[in-house]
Amino acid sequence: MAARALRISHVGLRGVVGNGLTAAHAMDFALAFGTFLDSPGRVVIGRDPRASGRMMREAVVSALLSSGHSVLDLGVVSTPVIQHAMRRMSASGGISIGASHNSEEWNALKFFGRDASYLSTGEATELLDIYHLRKFHYAPYDQLGKLSSDTTATDAYLDELAGAFDFDRLRRFRVVVDCCNGTSALLLKRLNERHGFRLVLINAAVDGGQFAHEPSTNARTVGLQLAPLIEPLGADAGFLFDVDSDRVAIATERGQAVSEELVLPLVAEHCLPLSPGRIVITNLSTTALVDEVAARHGGTVVRAAVGRQAAIDALSAFRPGQVSIAGEGTGAIMFSRFPYIYDGIVSMLTILESMAAREQPLSHLLDGFPKYSMLKGELPLETTRVPELLMSLQADFTGGRVDTTDGLRIDWPDRWFHVRVAQTEPVVRVICEQRGEPPQALFDSLMDRVRSLA
Amino acid sequence: MSAREHKLKVGVAGVRGVVGEFLTPGLAAALAQAFGTYVGDGRVVLGRDTRPSGEMILHAVRCGLLAAGCEVVDVGILPTPTIQVYIAATGARGGIAVTASHNPPEYNALKFFNARGLFCNAYERSEIIDLWHQSAFRHASNAEMRRIGHEAEAPKRIHFDRVLAHVDVDRIRARRFRVALDAVNGAGSLLSVEFLRDRLGCELQAIAVDPTKPFPRVAEPRPDTLGDLAALVRDRSCDIGFAQDPDGDRLAVCDETGRVLDNDDVLALAVDAALSRLPGDVVVNLTTSAAIDDIAARHNRKVYRTPVGEANVVERMQAAKAVIGGEGANGGIIFPAVQYCRDSYNGMAFLLDLMASTGLKVTGLAARMPQYHRRSGNVRYQHGRLATLLQAVEAAFPDAAQDRADGLKLTWPQGWIHVRSSNTEPILRFTVESESEAEADSVFRRVQELAA
């Protein structure tokens, strides 16, 4: 049994169902969202396949109908499919029910507003205030919303992607995909059936039962089942998606599990020369390889605090045309072609497009990058000691460029570290990276400094 | 009085309220979760009537039941008796009907049923309400979360088969009765057409049988609300007219002249039909006509009387192993050979069977019933005044026999008075019955004066 968990924040509602997250939480949060949106509106919803999603969906449907919104239910679909559908039908809001990369016992509600975008911090604050005040808008009995369903949203989404990518060139690749029993399985089956792709899908049972493994998009999970299959199947690449398909991790044709840090540089290398936008948005903990790649193509990197909300706020500071891509070291990337939509499937197609354009195998594309080595660690620390820690680190590590947006990051040529407090627990995260070999001495001294205060 | 209007009521049959500020989806989900916690993690049957808030409340109830670890069997839009029959027939843990029965369209309610398809009794209800008040819910984990299943056809088939097992279907079909129907666009809309036309071979003239439309008349089927049905009966020369409430438990009947029968007379006819076929006694509430006693006497059976309320009647019926029961004024006929519940389909089948077996028209059948004169009224009272009012009535009729099981009932050889408070509102209801119309009028006026 998972530990008791409930987290209510700007990003929405997230928790362990039945042990922290209850039906009442889901109901009230959806009522708050129904109250937050101008009524009557049209709200698009969808869910990932977790069994608890059935209960969460009922809460969301009744709450939205009750607040006077009509509801279009797309069923079990990926989060990007919901956002694309919202945009096609100019919906006033959207809710994605699913816990993304968290294990089965979790679930969550994610909210989208105008333009299918995540809520800004200002909007999210208003939503939270409504939730806490519990003064919800209830429509009178004869002005309640109506529920309808649409099972064609995935096909419509794939057709949009077919307009953005040259499927004739991409479908010849032999690709293995680890679907983590998530929404990507349904979507990619349709990509095979409808658009003639030859994707080999594993962990593709989507029945709300146990996941074959933790749905994290990182090199470790890629190494579990996906990477060992690549060479025996003679595949050109392997991709692994989290449950709602907004994140991706990759394996090369040689069966190597690729560090999740390399997904963003790989995509940036391909997208920057093609897009009018010159800006790459990422967070302070992401590899400096991104800066090197961006510089190569005349782009600039804007770094925001860690977390989806900070990225959304950073994005909103620019016109969509100015930004080429935005993403994190978790394999979640947003493309200028589809503003505000983090989409693992589009990441996969972009990587395949890059392979096709350069006529090179995936491992060669990665070999073209200079070597960067990253070390990550975390240690418990009373949150009251954090300012003292950061002040002393800033005093002692001199000569670099200092960024205090989110904890402390100091950059030197070819080397940087980032020390910050985790958002969800009293833990300090330490990340250092160096061009070339691992910065072991720097890392050890930072960890010692944290330990000395603990 | 609007400030004291009871827009949310947690009461006898379940929880009822005006949808919006009062009956919210959060409340419906929490109550359903309490119910699911009480009945345990098995199958729970869920259906609804056609009122506009039904879909919203249904999803809230599904949410609460799933959260409690129940498997939901969603039977969609169905009459309450059909849902109750289906619960009992399929060994479910219980069921919930989302319906405010005969109440106006702005209301909705949850009705809770136990594993036998009966309204939860007082003990079961208080357990559920206690769990709700304490928020002592079972919270199913992801691994414990079950599914929503759907069942559209079976409940209807099982219900109709059970009802029709107790009448001579071939004899009814052979008569090709011309029948008028007003289903108030309720849960019976589609079923009643199938029942009367396809199963009983009637030539059907139907109005208000579109479940997607609002209620075209007052939801409660009373003589003063059934003008359209009466006109239909006359215009199309129908043999009989039937009217249902939105969840199909109540029935009103219109004779071939377009006159809507008193509900007590409809019950009397059904009791006569049932006692003619099967052994057993009769249970009715204290407000039901003495005609029932006369009919039971003709068949040499006993009549038991209970406080008003379907649950009270059903409980006594079970104890007495009664063959039929009901509540006259409420238009409810309870025939346990089908299911312990008020069932308009039983009523329709019995009346058509009586017409077929006797060759009589409805006026002819009604004429064979004992003739009594009834007057009913009600008056709002202030809290705290109830005992004074009852004492005044009691003092005014010192020679009558007294029964205090539910308010006050006074009985004398040719008539009776029943005065009681509504279960849901501070309203005093009174009914007077007498063999003599003059006495009925004079006693009724007297009670009105006392209660004013």
Task: Set down the secondary structure blueprint.
The complex is a heterodimer of chains A (454) and B (452).
Chain A lengths: L5 E4 L2 E5 L6 H14 L5 E6 L4 H15 L3 E7 L2 H10 L4 E5 L8 E7 L8 H13 L13 E3 L3 H12 L2 H4 L3 E5 L4 H13 L2 E5 L16 H15 L3 E5 L6 E4 L11 H9 L7 E5 L5 H8 L3 E5 L3 H8 L7 E5 L5 E3 L8 H15 L3 H6 L4 E9 L5 H11 L4 E3 L4 E5 L2 E7 L5 E9 L4 H14 L1
Parallel strand pairs in A: 3-4, 3-5, 4-7, 8-9, 8-10, 12-13, 12-14
Antiparallel strand pairs in A: 1-2, 2-6, 5-6, 10-11, 14-15, 16-20, 17-18, 18-19, 19-20
Chain B lengths: L7 E3 L3 E5 L6 H15 L3 E6 L5 H14 L3 E7 L2 H11 L3 E5 L8 E7 L8 H12 L14 E3 L3 H11 L4 H7 L2 E5 L6 H11 L3 E5 L19 H9 L4 E5 L6 E4 L8 H15 L4 E4 L5 H8 L4 E4 L3 H11 L3 E4 L4 E3 L9 H15 L3 H6 L5 E8 L5 H11 L4 E3 L4 E5 L2 E7 L5 E8 L2 H15 L1
Parallel strand pairs in B: 3-4, 3-5, 4-7, 8-9, 8-10, 12-13, 12-14
Antiparallel strand pairs in B: 1-2, 2-6, 5-6, 10-11, 14-15, 16-20, 17-18, 18-19, 19-20
Q: How would you characterize the overall build of this protein?
A:
The complex is a heterodimer of chains A (454) and B (452). Chain A is α/β, with parallel strands linked by helices and 454 residues long. Chain A folds into three domains: 6-151, Alpha-D-Glucose-1,6-Bisphosphate, Chain A, domain 3; 156-367, Alpha-D-Glucose-1,6-Bisphosphate, Chain A, domain 3 (3-Layer(aba) Sandwich); 372-453, TATA-Binding Protein. Chain A has 15 helices and 20 strands. In chain A, helix 10 links the parallel strand 12 (279-283) and strand 13. With 452 residues, chain B is of the alpha/beta class. Chain B has three domains: 2-152, Alpha-D-Glucose-1,6-Bisphosphate, subunit A, domain 3 (Alpha-D-Glucose-1,6-Bisphosphate, Chain A, domain 3), CATH 3.40.120.10; 158-365, Alpha-D-Glucose-1,6-Bisphosphate, subunit A, domain 3 (Alpha-D-Glucose-1,6-Bisphosphate, Chain A, domain 3, 3-Layer(aba) Sandwich), CATH 3.40.120.10; 373-451, Alpha-D-phosphohexomutase, C-terminal domain (TATA-Binding Protein, 2-Layer Sandwich), CATH 3.30.310. In chain B, strand 12, helix 10 (291-298) and strand 13 (303-306) form a beta-alpha-beta unit. The two termini of chain B are 16 Å apart. The chains are: A alpha/beta (454), B alpha/beta (452). The interface between A and B is large, with 40 and 40 residues.
